[in-house]
Amino acid sequence: MIDYFSFTSKIHNNASLITDLGLYGIDQWQTTKGNYGYLHCSFFGGMRLYFGKEDESVYFSMSGQGCRSFETYSTLSWHELFFKLIDDEEHYNITRIDVACDEKENILDINKIHNYTERKQIAMRFQWYLCNKGSEGISVVLGSPQSNIRIRIYDKNAERGFTEGHWIRCELQLRDELALAMVKKLLHFDTGRCFTGVLNNYIRYIKNDDNEKWRCSTTNWWQKFINTAEKIKIYESVGVDYNLHRLEHFLDKQIGNSMYTYWKCCGSDVTKLLDIIKNHEGTLSIQQKNLIQEINDLKEISETL
Q1: Are residues 173 and 283 both part of a single domain?
Q2: Which of 237, 262, 295 is the last residue of a domain?
Q3: Is 252 in the same domain as 142?
Q4: pLDDT under 50 in the chain at which residues?
Q5: Which domain holds residue 76?
Q6: Contact at 8 Å (CB) between 14 and 59?
Q7: What is the pLDDT of residue 238?
Q8: What was the pLDDT predicted at 215?
Q9: Which pLDDT belongs to residue 27?
Q10: Distance linking the first and last C-alpha atoms of the chain
Q11: What Rg, from alpha-carbon coordinates, does the chain have?
Q12: 174 and 278 together in one domain
């Protein structure tokens, strides 16, 4: 489930964003002093809308409770919200998304996870980790506070003060460009597949059967938790992301003179040029194939909304 989500908008005020999010049926919004450079904050059911900043942007965040409120009161689905945000990246900025999985079938043992992590019997893409035992139970955090991706595994029962039952929560926290990349993945895959696929790409609890951690076998209990999930890489979608904007920039800077010359020679009749493009026999790169697939998928999504 989505357990935290936040973004900013450059094209809304507080009232228009609430309407655009399909939350116009709520009349219990309360207003208090703002934060993060915003003068005011309207809040309801774990949802917070910050406004009153000099740049006239607004900031909307949902805690775990807020995500459940959004699902209850909004006329939009998560899918529709995500599409709205990534369809206009110039005006929206996704700042954070948390995806959580509640394990209640005694697959994970939090003591075992704590011990395996402390013994470094784990293959992971993090240098920083924290194992903690306290009044609210045991927790393991992988990834530094400065990292754009963190993984947290903890005893939700103990945190809530429950003495019976089994409730281990494992959550992914992604910020900024990785949050945007995760949202794009969620438009292609269901939440469960995204969660286990990304998790499987970043960490594995392992048996000591090889000198190289990444060649070690996965423990049976961790394999049971992630099931048959294939690894999903999200970092490849950031930084030097191959997208339409970069493609257009390349066409302008690299072959712009040639295209301009062709246009001046042929005038408005570019039929032959289109035929050349359509019949191009070159081999596309993986990035180019992925971009075509992504654009086609988004067109299909737009047609169904």
Answers
A1: no
A2: 237
A3: no
A4: 237-240
A5: 2-237
A6: no
A7: 43
A8: 92
A9: 85
A10: 22
A11: 23
A12: no
Q: What are 133's strand-pairing partners?
A: 138
pLDDT at 301: 57
Contacts of 218 (CB under 8 A, 6+ apart): 204, 205, 206, 207
What are the structure tokens assigned to 201, written together? 């790409």
**Structural domains in the chain (count):** 2
Q: Residue for token digits 């209990």?
A: 221
Q: For tokens 């062709």, name the residue.
A: 262
By CB neighbour count within 10 A (0-12 exposed, 13-18 middle, 19+ buried), where does 54 fall?
Answer: exposed
* Domain-terminating residue out of 237, 271, 291: 237
- In this prediction the pTM is 0.76
Residues 112 and 72 in one domain: yes
Q: What is the largest CA-CA distance in the chain?
A: 80
Helix (H, G, I), strand (E, B) or coil at 285: coil
Residues 202 and 97 in one domain: yes
For residues 177 and 297, membership in a common domain is answered with no
What residue type is assigned to position 210 of the chain?
Answer: D
Q: 14: how many CB neighbours lie within 10 A of its CB?
A: 18
Half-sphere exposure of residue 215, counting CA atoms within 13 Å on the CB side? 4
- 110: its two tokens: 């939090």
Q: List all residues 6 or more positions away from 216 whose beta carbon is below 8 Å from its beta carbon.
A: 123, 204, 206, 207, 208, 209, 210
